[in-house]
Design brief:
mainly alpha, 2 domains, 5 helices
Length: about 140
């Protein structure tokens, strides 16, 4: 459930499979995360990947019909897919700065276009009618006698 720590994982793997050397590289990012940090970290990684690929539920569907938003979501989904496929063959994807920077850029690009489309959607909606304010009675003049 908790894993053995990323630093000790290669030694534990070599001991478990009775390898002739002292260390074995996991060669898989998912196995490295589960074995090194545990299932809770793997679920957190899966949740982050899911959030990068899914829509924001509070936004209306008209926001996601915008072409730039659709392109941004497509790029985000492709990046997550490339990360997963690349991670199947090497754990170094975790330490590759290019993918970390690309994830940040794509996430920002997507959020910027979603926000722009959401603001355009709100501007296109009719303004809500102002609530009717009841007329206040005019005060009577006080007459001094």
């Amino acid at each position: 459930m908790l894993g053995v720590s990323p630093q000790r994982l290669p030694f534990v793997l070599a001991h478990a499979v009775h390898f002739r050397m002292n260390v074995v590289d996991p060669h898989n990012v998912f196995g490295f995360i589960i074995g090194g940090s545990g299932l809770t970290t793997m679920f957190a990684l899966a949740y982050v990947g899911w959030q990068l690929c899914s829509r924001v539920r509070q936004r209306p569907a008209a926001v996601y019909s915008d072409a730039l938003v659709q392109n941004a979501m497509y790029i985000a989904r492709c990046l997550v897919l490339v990360w997963c496929v690349r991670g199947m063959f090497s754990r170094e994807i975790l330490y590759n700065p290019c993918f970390c920077i690309a994830i940040g850029i794509v996430f920002s690009y997507r959020r910027i276009h979603e926000q722009r489309a959401h603001e355009e959607f709100l501007r296109s909606q009719p303004a809500p009618a102002a609530p009717a304010v009841p007329a206040l009675p005019t005060p009577r003049r006080l007459v001094m006698r």
